[in-house]
Amino acid sequence: MFPTHNFSFDKERGLFCDGTPIAPFDASISEKIKRKNMEKKSEQTLYLVRVTYTDGRPPVSKWIENPKKINYFEDFEINDSFMSAKIRTLLHDKMLREIEKLPEKVIREIRPGLNFVDGSPVYAIGEHIIPKNDAKNTEQLEVGIKQTLLRVPPVSTESLREKSDKYIRLLPGITEPLFFYSLFAVVKPFIERLHIHCGFLLALIAPSGQLKTTLARLYGQYEVTPHL
Hints:
This protein has helices spanning 72-76, 85-101, 157-164, 176-193, 212-224; strands at residues 7-10, 14-17, 20-23, 25-37, 42-53, 60-64, 104-110, 113-117, 120-125, 128-130, 139-143. It is α+β, with helices and mostly antiparallel strands. The strands form three sheets. Strands 6-5-4-7-11 form a five-stranded mixed sheet, with helices on one face. A three-stranded antiparallel sheet has the order 1-2-3, covered by helices on one side. A three-stranded antiparallel sheet has the order 8-9-10, with no helix packed on it. The radius of gyration is 28 Å and the shape is elongated. The chain starts with 6 loop residues before the first strand and ends with a helix.
């Protein structure tokens, strides 16, 4: 149980507690979520703190892990030198009462690639999840690790072709990108079997007659008879 204080906020005069002004802003909790990291087996509860100012600035919302340890100066650009320990306690009690009334949203963080959630396969491609979140499920799925692009130094196409021609002969009409995408599409399943998750999806794209179907059949044959 929390002390029965009555809080009110006036856009021009600030936040009042039992009729007494305590702060020139209002801090309230508008949402709470519990994030479950499926890979690390860890949990974290976060609260969305919304601050409304009296000086004309637009409201600011930020996710905070512990409402009792909010740094109003760094997080919300508020001069908190006037705030006594009593005022901070009152603000914290107000937010705890708000937290009690909010429903808890649970988000499961999955890694890019293939995942198994409650025994069912779920594939994360970029920020897309297949199959999509079930509306009946109270827990939402989200990709926890974002993919980043690596800077690749510029390489001369002619020098690359000269070097690759010593080892690889491309069919007429096939460019290097198409060839490497085809190569990755074949290699990726074997890498996954080593429990090295690539975290991306590859498509086999090429003009008609360029062995796309043959490669798919060979992989299918490997799945049936991997010892061959």
